[in-house]
Every structure is written in structure tokens, then in C-alpha cells.
Amino acid sequence: MASDRPSMPPQALIRAVELARNGLAFAYRKLVPGRIALMELMAAGWLTQAIHAAAELGIADALADGPRSGADLARTIGADEDALHRLLRLLIAHGIFTRRRDGKYALTSMAEALVRDGDVSLRDAALFFGSPTHRAHWSQLVDAVRTGKPVGVVVHGMSFFEQMQSDRELAMLFDNAMTSIGTLSLAPLVAAYDFGRFDTVVDVGAGEGTMLIEILRRAPQSSGILFDLPDVADAAASKVADAGLVERCAIERGSFFDGVPPGGDAYILKHILHDWPDEDAGRILANVRAAMKPDARLLIIELVLPEHHRPHPGKLIDLEMLVNTGGRERTAAEYRTFLARFGFTLKRVIPTASPDNILEVEVS
Fold first, then answer.
1. Which pTM does this prediction carry?
2. DSSP states of 116-148 as a string?
3. How confident is the model over 256-280, as pLDDT tens digits?
4. Could you give the residue numbers annotated as active site?
5. What whole-number distance in Å separates Cα of residue 227 and Cα of residue 211?
6. 43-125: CATH topology
7. Domain over 193-363 is classified CATH 3.40.50.10090
8. Phi, psi of 103 (to 5 degrees)
């Protein structure tokens, strides 16, 4: 039985809006002196830190129940009123928060995404991307470009994922940030592909299981296998139980470097391959290939890099991978070549209303 896929705005409309936005930005950069346009881009990092400060101070949480005066807001979050006004002045200029005619501060749609318990909260993402650890890594981008290696060993004496294992507070922040970011593309993904055509869906490296839970909700005839490291899978088990899917979703524990559960009709790798250098990504693919039946499908969900020279989030994330993990984003052609090395054929690339794409892959 086919899954109940949600409706989304037409992709053609979304792409047209993106082209218009990029065109206006390009035209602006051409009209102003180059040094001015460059200076504005260089200052973008300051805005990241301002958003981080707002998240750390809990400004959005303090405004969640309604507008507040500057004095009241400063008292509530424990900040200097004048300094808070200066921070909010910058954020308001970019549509994050607003100040009403009566002088009270209030949330905007963007500011709502900083509320801790919002429907889709990016608060943890703001805290992670503005954290001292993240800044320290990106400050070593020059070395990463010179060596082609991630900077964790230089900065901390260990790899990124080793650091996550040794610093549980940072790891929790990172996991929550990635979960919240992943939620942004969830509806576009289930709208773009009929996962209900498969009897058993195996989510490899599933994290908290957000993707698999949504698939099973919309595909009532399908069952799932959630596979991740023991501590992650244990946490995901409660999410599966809360969703009422215990009877249809098995929890299996292990590392995708050692093997993955056999017998699935579809295997999902969502934001997994880009995390790892080619050698490690190849080990994951080889283990998935060994587990797959001849007629099974591998569904790789990633930010497939476009061939054009316009802005695209994948180009930023590609450098994030270079700096932190040693992984990379790839074009469709690069995926096709890479997958062929491990006995796979890329059948099609399915765009979604988000930057994510679904790569449908068969066993060669």
C-alpha cells in the first residue's frame, strides 16, 4: 500500500524563488563596490555569533509567552539592558525578533525557531554553530585546505567523533542540533518519495529515528528496523514507543563499520556518507551491499552538489565536513562513480522541496 505523502509547494515554484533570490543577491553584489560587498560577507560571522548569543541567553524563550519591554526582558534573562538593546537591534534588522510601536520586543517567525521547545527548534543548532569548539575548528580552515585533513587532531588531539565520545555534553548538543536540522527536510523527503512501496525499511545510522518514525506513520503496511550504536539506539527506543510503533519497528544495535541488519527491502543512509572520508564511507557501503537482497534499494539522502556556480548550502556543508570530519559532499556524477566501486548503480536522483536529494540506488 502506498504511503500517505504530504503535499508540498511545487518544486518548480521553490526553484524559481531560489533563482530570483540568488539573482537579486548577485545583482546587488555587482552594483556595489566589490570591497563593500566583500566586507558584508566577511561580517556574516558576527551575525552567527549574535544568533548564538540570543540562543544562549534564552531571549526567544523569554518572549514565548508574549512581548516584553526591554527592562523586563533584560531582568528576565539576566542581561544588561543597553547591551541587550544593541544585540536585538542587529537581530531585528535581519528579521530575527521585532520591536513593536509600544517599544516591546516580540518574536518573529525566525525567532520562534530559537524557542527551546518549539515545533522545530534550531536553538541547539545555533548553540553548536556558535560554540567555542566550532569556532576553534573553523579558525583552522587554512590548515585543512593545505593538508586536506580535518583539524580535530591538531586542535584537540583527537578526531571529531572521538571528541564527541569524550565530551558527552558537546555530543548531546551536536546530536540535538543535527536532529533539529534534519527535521527541516523531513516533510519534503516523505512528500517526494513513496517509501510505502517497501515491506521493510532499514534506517542505518538512524539517530533518534525521526525519519523512520515519520515513514512508518505514513506507510501503515510497512515495518522498520532502526539501526545505530547501542547508546543512540537505546535513546531512540523510547521515541519509537512514544510513537506507538513498537510492534512495527525493531531496534537493532551495532556499528555500520561492522555490518548492518540483513533482509530489508530498502536501506536508508541519511546524512551518513558525507560524514566520512572515502575509505570509511566505502566500508559503510560495502557492509550495506553485503546485507542487501538483489532486488533491494539503497536510498541515500544527501545534499547533492550542483554543477552551477550559484550559492548552495551544500557548498558550505562541504567545507564543514572538510574541517570537522574529513568527509565531503559530492555531485551526482561523483556519487555515480563512487557507488560503482562498491557494486551499486545510481538509478536516479530525486530532488525535494528542501536542499536534500534522494539518490535511488540498485545493486549492480
1. 0.90
2. TTSTT--HHHHHHHTSHHHHHHHTTHHHHHHHS
3. 999 999 999 999 999 999 999 999 9
4. 274
5. 12
6. Arc Repressor Mutant, subunit A (1.10.10)
7. no
8. 90, -5
